[in-house]
Design goal:
Largest sheet: 4 strands, antiparallel
Oligomer: single chain
Radius of gyration: 15 Å
Pfam family, one: DUF2284
Number of domains: 1
Strand order of the largest sheet: 1-2-4-3
Protein name: DUF2284 domain-containing protein
Organism: Metallumcola ferriviriculae
Order of helices and strands: HEHHEHEHE
Number of strands: 4
Length: 178
Amino acid sequence: MDIRQKARQLGASKALIITKEQLVIEEAVRNACVENQCGHYDSNFMCPPHVGEISHFEEVLDEYSQGLLVQVKRDIKSLEDKEAILSLAGQLHQLVLAIEKEAKQQDYSRAKALSAGHCKLCEPCPINTGADTCIKPDLARPAMEAVGINVVESCRRAGAPLEFLQHEVTWVGLILLK
């Protein structure tokens, strides 16, 4: 089965192949993390500064030619419905892990998933209680934003522009394929 079809079967609203040239990497995106605009800077192993510099991600990206961009959407009551929003983020995380696993079984042995937002596997992240390393490295994945990817512009370039609506939320993930 085609990896895009498998992603849709697993729950992706959209699944598109994106070339690495279509990915927009910007220091300004990473700076939003450094400015702690989401409140998770240096308090989560999958957030900056713990995920390395953008230059390191660009070196990793050089090893890949394309990726699978996936979106999951859900209607919500309002943007105040944090439970529904975070629930969908969790579903995206499980989806990118499942696609990464499927991709590795389909000749993409070095598939690498990126999720969205801060890692929510452990609340709070063990870094906040003095841990030196992530306790779930086989499941944790950094956010696209954490490595500097401008998600909005990358989605637009891939032909899947994001809409920001009052009663709908969309989360975006990426599985790098080689």
